[in-house]
């Protein structure tokens, strides 16, 4: 099939997942609103980081589908797998935010689950990309082996990075958030510098 | 009318229904997060199964609408009926998840309602498909009787399967979830093997 | 501007409003699930009626925009006004459902607000339609005065009907739901019989 | 890349953000529903104002993207930044509504945050517009310097206005809502009078 409806559906899922994040922000009642909101800082930090990460994934996802002339069922199902990991992100985001709050319980477990969710997303992304590069008949634009190799490195660097991030969950859970933001910035810069950035 | 806006609206509804599922996942506070999440396993299992089932329905829905050159009001209303059953899925999903949790009440009733919701969805799907095959003037691609017969069998097998699944609600409610996952896997494999899979 | 992005945005809003309705359904915990769900019947009835009404509005909205070749700012703002009334529908729906439940308080007020919300929607719809028929330069298809007159009657019949429905709020709030369902059925049948149904 | 998928994603985010606002409306139970709803007036006022503001932003966003023939990564990321501020709006909306209610705490802080959120949105909007006017190679339509200057004034007037609005937070928080509504009306009128209104 053509990639048009695949794109429309994926865009819808990305748009909703990125917008639902705001529902996780608590609206405190009563006095001393400013102090209450300061205690909620992990929610705001997690909101901004997850929004940005999902946004970057959307930009890159866009770049991947732009290479396709048509999609087979394999692409559809691997894309669904990726969307599953994207749709799930609001949950570990809320979990980490809740447990980073002053006085709340189990920061380490929350940060491990948070990192694991991004490992799963990164892995699903890599599988989709690898499948596409193997099925050259689906490609609409000619990709040189060099281009595939470069983009593959870029997409595969996510998984080991997230595993390192997971290790930091045991040292300092708050740093996990900062690392996630750092990787998003890396993808922004790498995406802008990539040779095909203008064409995508 | 053309099927374009029908597809856009349907894609939107599918995308939202599949994404709202994550809102049903509770974010536990306090210590022993891992243990708490383990008790929530039915929520995670139900989330994954319903996500995958709605995803498969979307892929197949796509295949159905691709046969259409244009839609009359009958298609619009039968499609709305199908979307009604899809939009409803997060409710029985949350219900079954809630009642499968350790110590919670009424597993059997929840599993019956869960299966009934999928019977309704499968039935609405079959009615839409049957209507389309009867209105050959709406079809954009020539379908042989053989192709219609094969696809009809595939789409009609869902309803009796879900009725069997409903019967299992009285034996073991947890198995209902597993059966639902199994049917989704069947539709994935059958869809990939179908003669028109590449064209859809 | 072209009507394409107007349609995409409107379709998105309709799709989300229709899907959010499911979030208003409570998931009861504990034993005697069946009895608890029976007490929730107004929620289910209100869910089905509002889903169907929004679905019908979408189908008709579709028919209206299909007459347009392009949209000016007036169409954009009047369309926003209509979307405002559509987006609002989940609120009076939840309100009526809550107050129709056995033992709950203020059925009459809830039914008045429910009917008023549909009067507002119907009024916004009529204003958009009247504006479009006055701006013949925006129309893409030639509409005869006879066609405009017929469709106008169909669209303007909603407002007085909803006012009658509001009057029933003081007699029997549950009947308000039934009347709303009846009007939706009227629009389905009238839409299928309209001379332009096939073309839309 | 083409602006088509950028538009689709943005439309989705706008559509969801505008629709999620209704979830912030409480459904009161029990007697004296009318009196209870009267106490909730800030929620309704905030709902209507935020709906209308997001709607106007969407209309204008539309106008901006219509000037583009294609988008580079800079446009994508600056657009994401704008969407971040749009997606965030339901939170300060709910915050202001909560704190304007009779007897509730901290109106001033809530109104400051509310105004700050719109300053951020207006600022992100201005940055996106300025970037686009600097990258003439991305433009699809020829814009005269005069046209750019006029539109720039229109888009840049928002930020100082919102700063004035923020100052009113210390005098009368309820007026902040009214000022926000007034600016939305200004943008509606200015948009309809702008020389390119018909073309957009």
Largest interface: A-D, 39 and 34 residues
Principal-axes geometry of chain A comes out as elongated
How many separate helices of chain A? 9
Instruction: Provide the low-confidence segments of chain A as ranges.
Output: 195-200
Provide a concise account of the structure shown.
With 200 residues, chain A is an all-alpha fold. Chain A has nine helices and no strands.
Helix and strand arrangement:
Four copies of one chain form a homotetramer.
Chain A: H1 4-20, H2 33-39, H3 41-66, H4 73-88, H5 90-100, H6 107-134, H7 145-156, H8 158-168, H9 173-193
Helix pairs in contact in A: 1-3, 1-4, 3-5, 3-9, 4-6, 5-6, 6-7, 6-8, 6-9, 8-9
Give an overview in words.
- Four copies of one chain form a homotetramer.
- Chain A is mainly α and 200 residues long.
- Helix content of chain A is 74%, strand content 0%.
- Chain A has helices at residues 4-20, 33-39, 41-66, 73-88, 90-100, 107-134, 145-156, 158-168, 173-193.
- In chain A, α1 (4-20) packs antiparallel against α3 (41-66), α4 (73-88) packs antiparallel against α6 (107-134) and α6 packs parallel to α9.
- Chains in contact: A-B, A-D, B-C, C-D.
- The B-C interface holds B 1, 5, 8-9, 12-13, 15-17, 20, 23-24, 72-74, 76-77, 80, 83-84, 87-88, 90-91, 94-95, 98-99, 104-106, 109-110, 113 and C 7-8, 11-12, 14-16, 18-23, 25, 27, 29-34, 37, 47-48, 51-52, 55, 58-59, 62-63, 66, 188, 191-192, 197-200.
């Amino acid at each position: 099939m053509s990639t048009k409806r695949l794109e429309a559906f994926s865009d819808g899922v990305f748009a909703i997942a990125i917008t639902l994040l705001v529902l996780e922000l608590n609206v405190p009642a009563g006095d001393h609103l400013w102090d209450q909101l300061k205690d909620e800082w992990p929610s705001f930090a997690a909101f901004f980081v997850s929004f940005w990460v999902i946004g970057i994934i959307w930009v890159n996802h866009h770049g991947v589908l732009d290479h396709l002339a048509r999609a087979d069922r394999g692409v559809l199902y691997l894309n669904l797998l990726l969307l599953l990991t994207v749709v799930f992100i609001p949950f570990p985001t809320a979990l980490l935010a809740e447990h980073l709050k002053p006085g709340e319980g189990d920061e380490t477990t929350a940060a491990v689950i948070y990192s694991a969710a991004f490992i799963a997303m990164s892995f699903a992304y890599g599988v989709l990309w690898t499948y596409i590069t193997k099925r050259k008949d689906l490609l609409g634009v000619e990709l040189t082996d060099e281009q595939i190799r470069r983009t593959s490195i870029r997409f595969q660097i996510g998984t080991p990075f997230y595993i390192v991030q997971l290790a930091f969950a045991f040292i300092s859970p708050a740093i996990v958030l900062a690392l996630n933001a750092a990787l998003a910035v890396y993808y922004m810069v790498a995406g802008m510098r990539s040779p095909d950035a203008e064409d995508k």
